[in-house]
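Many introductory courses stop at the sequence. We go one step further.
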Amino acid sequence: MNALTADSIALLRQMVGVPSESFHEEAVADLLFRTLDGWGLAPKRYANNIVAACKGYNAALPTLLLDAHTDTVAPADGYTRNPYDAGDDEGTVFGLGSNDDGGSVVSMIAAFRHFQDRELPFNLVLSLSTEEERSGAGGASMLFGPEGPEETRDADWVIFGEPTGMKAATSERGLLVLDALAEGVSGHAARNEGVNALYIALDDIQKLRSHDFNKISPTMGQVRLNVTQIQAGSTHNVIPDRCSFVVDIRPTEQYDNKEILEELQAVCKSRLTARNLTNRSSATPEGSPLLRTVRALGIETFSSPTTSNWMRTSKDAIKMGPGDSSRSHRANEYILFSEIDEAIEKYITFIENFYGHTLE
């Protein structure tokens, strides 16, 4: 185990010991800022986000950004270990956030350190962002927005660190949640009075289930849609005048969320209201130097069913990091030393090979 890996494991164990649920990342940001500053990486802090640029950063050069998030979800039920105790097990770091997304955080820091004193033909920037798990406005949305720092706002390419087993996600589905409300007229069930809102909802649900989205993604296929909740009625003998249900939709890059909402509203009597229209789908464009580098290095690609900070920007990007997505948000989360060591090596190799593919 080399020094970069050893430092990464030690830092990750410290991170696990600091509760950092979304919107409560101040303490972990303090830890990371102190650590990066101690390593001479000249970090800057934007609220609880940490950004570091390579020595000799030049706004006239293109920028490759490494981004990983520092926040976690709340501990899942079923932990048999203290979720904030990383343990001292040889070969494994346990605890909340170790896999999602601490492994990517420390591995990207290590890769950034490797290149800190090397001259590159492009800028290398590291961002450790917040509020990813809750889609907050103060994390990646701020860093990539018009008021964000130029090092992140003006980046040309991004690698988003998430637990993918160091496979490269070249697309990811978005998320669109619709609250639907069917309205009828109440009446006495015995006299068959009123207009049953539950039946209106059921008719609409059938229309949604059979609806075909005509635009098919070459990497993700069709838009996925599921009705996941329904609520109606107050007592057995009253025709319900309201029925609400929830629709979970996983878009592809072929549609924006507003377009999907309008298309479905046109076939439903129920009123559809989007909780959020900004959780967009993403895909790496054909011809991207990121994609060319992935292929040249023989990195396996896939389409990700989960969202990430990628949905906060339209920049040319891939998603790739250590760990396994199936461990995320579950009790007794963990990541292996070997996964962190592999990630550091692969990030370094990727960056070393990247620039040549920007010239093709």
